[in-house]
Each structure stands twice: as C-alpha cells, then as structure tokens.
Design brief:
With about 80 residues, the protein is an all-alpha fold. It contains three helices and no strands. Helix 1 packs across helix 2.
Length: about 80
C-alpha cells in the first residue's frame, strides 16, 4: 500500500526506494531482535535495542543536517 502511494507521487523510482527502505528496516529490526534477545526476551535486550536504535537515529539526523545537497536544493526552491 505504501509503495503504491509513493509510486504515484514520485513515479516508479519512488516506489522502488520506499520498498527497499522497508526491506532494509525489516532486516535490521530482525537482526537486532535476534542479536539482543537470543533465546528469550529480557529487559537488558530491550535496552540494547533501544540504544542501537537511538544511535542509528542520531547518525541519520547528523547525516541529514550536514548534507550540503539538501541545503542547495532548499535554496533553489525558496
């Protein structure tokens, strides 16, 4: 459903990027769950997943803020 909506907005390339992002997110989540939980779910495992998710979110935020291409694109649209 989401891929179809992205495809209507940005063409087939938009749907492809959205689908790939969903797959990468699902694979990352499954890997983290397997890595931190192992045989059973624990509070320590949940905290480990939260720490990794927070670090990944911070990294993406920093990459977005420091991306010069986004600044150039914002100037041309203003």
């Amino acid at each position: 459903m989401r891929g179809a909506a992205a495809g209507r907005r940005a063409g087939p390339a938009g749907a492809s990027v959205a689908g790939t992002s969903q797959y990468v997110g699902a694979i990352t989540a499954a890997g983290l769950i397997g890595l931190f939980y192992g045989q059973r779910a624990t509070a320590a495992g949940l905290h480990g997943i939260a720490m990794v998710a927070g670090a990944l979110s911070l990294a993406v935020l920093l990459l977005t803020v420091t991306d010069r291409a986004l600044r150039a694109r914002a100037r041309t649209r203003a």
